[in-house]
């Protein structure tokens, strides 16, 4: 199990960890502000699950596109992007049909991808102890 985890791209793992951190914070804050609504909790969990699926899909799409010729890769990337957008809109529409708090939770969960991308460098710095790829090291190499 640990061997398989080490083979996964560390940036992907850090991004997923960022989603987990964001999800815990957003879920807690949302539950407090929504008065403990089950609809919001279900929405945020569905949004975070969708966000994890979207991140994994993006990772696999890029990995596959790198093995294709440029024209095929471009078409492949566009198709996969449209699938991700359609899936996001579909899940959001289902959330609207269920309850507006569920819709809000779904949107906040999916937006967690953006927050996780901002958290990734900080998570990387904590994990690596500021060793590889730190800004000090990069500046030292440049100057």
Structure description:
- The radius of gyration is 18 Å and the shape is flat.
- The chain is built from seven helices and no strands.
- The model has no long low-confidence stretch (mean pLDDT 85).
- It is mainly alpha-helical.
> Strand pairing plus helix content: what structural class?
mainly alpha
Query: Count of helical segments?
Result: 7
Number of distinct beta strands: 0
Helix content: over 70%
Alpha carbon gyration radius: 18 Å
In short:
This protein is an all-alpha fold and 143 residues long. The chain is 86% helix and 0% strand.
Please specify the SSE layout and strand pairing.
Elements: H1 2-7, H2 10-33, H3 38-65, H4 70-98, H5 100-110, H6 112-128, H7 135-142
Sum up the structure in keywords:
143 residues
């Amino acid at each position: 199990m640990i061997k398989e985890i080490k083979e996964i791209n560390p940036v992907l793992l850090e991004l997923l960890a960022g989603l987990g951190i964001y999800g815990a914070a957003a879920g807690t804050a949302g539950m407090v502000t929504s008065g403990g609504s089950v609809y919001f909790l279900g929405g945020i969990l569905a949004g975070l699950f969708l966000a994890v699926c979207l991140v994994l899909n993006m990772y696999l799409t890029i990995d596959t596109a790198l093995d294709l010729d440029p024209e095929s890769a471009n078409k492949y990337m566009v198709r996969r992007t449209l699938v991700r957008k359609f899936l996001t809109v579909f899940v959001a529409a289902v959330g609207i049909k269920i309850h507006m708090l569920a819709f809000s939770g779904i949107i906040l969960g999916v937006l967690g991808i953006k927050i996780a991308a901002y958290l990734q460098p900080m998570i990387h710095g904590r994990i690596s102890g500021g060793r590889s790829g730190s800004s000090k090291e990069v500046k030292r190499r440049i100057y």
